[in-house]
Write a structure and sequence with these properties.
This is B box-type domain-containing protein. With 257 residues, this protein is mainly alpha-helical. 66% of the residues lie in helices and 4% in strands. It contains 6 helices and 3 strands.
C-alpha cells in the first residue's frame, strides 16, 4: 500500500520546468531562494557551483511558506515596477523616435550642403570649359572668315591678272600700246602687289592664330578623389545619447535559505 511519502514523490516527478518544459524539476537551489531547477537549468550555467537540495527532501510547508510570505507580496511590487519600466520604455522610445527624425533631417540638410558644394564645383568646371570652347569658336570664326575673304580677293586678283595678260598679248599683236595704257597697267600692278603682300602677311597671321587654339582636356586625380571619399566618411559619427541610469528594480531579492 502506497504511503503519503510515495504519493508526494510521484506527484513531484510530474512537475515540469517552466523554462525547459520538456524537463522535470529535480532540485531546489539553496543559493537562489530554493528556486526549483531541472537538469537543463543547472547545465545552462545560471546555478553552477550553487548548493542544491532534492525536491522530495524539502518539506512542502517550507516552500509554501516562502511562496506566501516572501514571493507573493512581491507580485504587486513587480507589477508596479513593470508599469514604471513600461512608462520609461515609452518615454525612451519616444525620445529615440524624435531623435531618429532629427537625425534624418540633419543628414538631409548636411548632405544637401555637400550636394550644393559639388554642384557649384561642377558649374565652375562647366563654365571654365565653356569659356575655353567659346574662345576656340571665336578663333575658328576669325580664321574661317579671314581665309574666305583672302580667297575671294586672291581669286579676283588672279582673274584680273589673267585678263590683263590676255589684253597685253592682244595689244602687242596690234601694236597699239600707248603711254596711257602703260600707266594704267602700272597702277594696277602696284595695287595688286600691295594686296598680295597684305594677303601673304595675313596668311602668316592665320597660321599663327592656329596656335591660339586650346584643346582642353580635363583629368581627375583618383587618389585625391579617394581621399575626399574617405574624409566624407569622417564627417559623421554615431554615439549612444542615453546617459540615464536605470534605477528600476527588475528582479526579486534572492535571499538565502
Amino acid at each position: 500500500m502506497a504511503t503519503s511519502e510515495d504519493d508526494k514523490d510521484n506527484s513531484y516527478k510530474k512537475i515540469k520546468c517552466t523554462i525547459h518544459p520538456n524537463k522535470k524539476i529535480k532540485l531546489l537551489c539553496s543559493d537562489c531562494n530554493l528556486m526549483p531547477c531541472c537538469i537543463e537549468c543547472i547545465l545552462d550555467g545560471e546555478h553552477i557551483s550553487h548548493k542544491y537540495r532534492k525536491l522530495e527532501s524539502v518539506d512542502f510547508s517550507l516552500i509554501n511558506s516562502k511562496f506566501k510570505n516572501d514571493i507573493c507580496p512581491k507580485i504587486k511590487e513587480k507589477i508596479e515596477n513593470n508599469k514604471i519600466i513600461l512608462k520609461e520604455s515609452y518615454n525612451k522610445f519616444h525620445e529615440i523616435q524624435s531623435q531618429f527624425y532629427n537625425n534624418n533631417n540633419l543628414i538631409k540638410n548636411e548632405i544637401d550642403k555637400i550636394r550644393e558644394t559639388i554642384s557649384n564645383i561642377e558649374t565652375d568646371f562647366q563654365n571654365e570649359l565653356k569659356e575655353t570652347f567659346d574662345n576656340n569658336k571665336i578663333i575658328n570664326t576669325k580664321i574661317t572668315s579671314s581665309i574666305n575673304q583672302d580667297n575671294e580677293l586672291l581669286t579676283n586678283i588672279e582673274n584680273n591678272n589673267n585678263n590683263n595678260n590676255n589684253n597685253n598679248n592682244n595689244n602687242n599683236n596690234n601694236n597699239n600700246n600707248n603711254n596711257s595704257s602703260n600707266c594704267i597697267d602700272a597702277n594696277e600692278t602696284i595695287k595688286r602687289y600691295q594686296q598680295l603682300l597684305i594677303l601673304i602677311n595675313n596668311n602668316k597671321k592665320n597660321s599663327n592664330k592656329l596656335k591660339e587654339y586650346n584643346n582642353q582636356v580635363i583629368t581627375f586625380e583618383n587618389s585625391t578623389l579617394d581621399e575626399i571619399k574617405n574624409y566624407l566618411k569622417l564627417i559623421y559619427s554615431f554615439k549612444n545619447n542615453d546617459n540615464n541610469d536605470n534605477k528600476s528594480n527588475n528582479e526579486f531579492d534572492n535571499d538565502g535559505d
